[in-house]
From TrEMBL:
Listed GO CC annotations: plasma membrane
CDD domains assigned: MATE_MepA_like
UniProt-listed Pfam families: MatE
InterPro entries: MATE_fam (IPR002528), MATE_MepA-like (IPR045070), MATE_MepA_subfamily (IPR051327), MdtK-like (IPR048279)
Keywords for the protein's UniProt record, in alphabetical order: Antibiotic resistance, Cell membrane, Membrane, Transmembrane, Transmembrane helix, Transport
PANTHER family membership: MULTIDRUG EXPORT PROTEIN MEPA (PTHR43823:SF3), SPORULATION PROTEIN YKVU (PTHR43823)
Protein name: Multidrug export protein MepA
Keyword Transport carried by entry: yes
Organism domain of life: Bacteria
Annotated source species: Coprobacter fastidiosus NSB1 = JCM 33896
GO BP: response to antibiotic
GO molecular function terms listed in the Swiss-Prot or TrEMBL record: antiporter activity; xenobiotic transmembrane transporter activity
Lineage: Bacteria, Pseudomonadati, Bacteroidota, Bacteroidia, Bacteroidales
Entry's transmembrane regions: 20-44, 56-83, 95-117, 137-157, 169-191, 197-219, 240-265, 277-299, 324-348, 368-386, 398-417, 423-444
Family of the protein in this entry: Belongs to the multi antimicrobial extrusion (MATE) (TC 2.A.66.1) family. MepA subfamily.
Amino acid sequence: MKRDAIDLKTVNVFTLFRRYFIPTLLGMLSMSAVTAIDGIFVGHGVGSDGIAAINILIPVLMFFTGVGLMVGAGCSVVASIHLSRGKQNTARINVTQALFFVTIIAALLSFLMMIFPDDTAYLLGASEHLRPMVTDYLLWFVPSWIFQIWIAVSLFIIRLDGAPKLAMFCSLVTAVINVVLDWIFIFPFGWGVMGAALATSISIISGGIIAILYLLFFARRLRLYPLKWSVKSFRLFVRNIGYQCRIGSSALLGEATLAVLMFVGNQVFMHYLGDDGVGAFGIACYYIPFVFMVGNAVAQSAQPIISYNFGLGYRKRVTEAVRIALLTAVLCGVVVTVVFVACPDFLVGLFIDKDNVAARIAIEGFPYFAIGFVCFIFNLTAVGYYQSVERARPATWFALLRGFIFLIPSFLIMPHMLGVEGIWLALPLSEIMTTIAIIMFYYYRKMND
């Protein structure tokens, strides 16, 4: 497998960022496409009820991905700093421990959900009408989640190892397999949501195998390292994983923001507009991971540059990388917002017939929903910066603000003030307030330094 040679301490920062950003963005969008493609085929092959059923289960997938992003981000920062100081074996040990840890977590939780599918569906808010489709999707999708969490962690490591194009290829292969199998299983075979789940599982398993094979046999500096089994080694394992999770906790909270958005939004839309409202919101929730992944692509492209140079003490290069990342975030946010405001009919029509009740609700709501996208991407990038320089506390607080402290009250209060439009405006309000908090914190620290 071809590897890219990238010198993080001498190459021009803008050139470095560009070399990371383009393949990372394409890879991230491909990851989002896996779920969105399900929605498009299910919308046309099953209808808005199928979209609503899948959307009810997606918050759990967000949690799994969030755990992977938390451990992956923390592991990547720690490994990057060790590499900058010439401690390659220590970096490899941290990488191996991270993958071992997430495998245990994913296996345990997947097993519990497979045993109790109906209870899981009810816990996530499925109505009696939607429950059979939710459990059908769950039983065929959940077995792939170990591979999903492998992908989430491994892509961080593969990029840090100097192979961003391979990380992109891993994501693209997953998306292409999903497209082909989705069409076959839903239309010619007529397997409905079960077919969509099976197609996604096969595609995710394929991507996970590619990533793990690279780390086992082809990685340049971060090949997996044999772990020792002793009391001392276990203590070091717990210490290292705890530190990685602390650094990357804001990444979990960032993904948890999507889970909370979908879970609380499902409940609120169900309360005000019933299953059609959940279907409309489900279409929006197929798009929001694309926006999230754009922000993630910006943050993760800057992360190895920032962490490596931070470890070396090259402050000027760190500052330059942060400035480029934030400007890129704002530009991407503007582009995404324009698309959503200008083309809601087209975006919704990709999933279901535009004459559908759920489609009309979504078309009217998309322009309101898109108001917060610039702040959404900016906030993810800012949180990524604080992760990259081992400042876990502000990163965690900002993630909490946007995912819980501001978002949940916004969902509860805005519908009472503005009706249905208020539900769509809950996310923008939360993101805008978080951006204000980040800017205030930055200037406060600057004045007191």
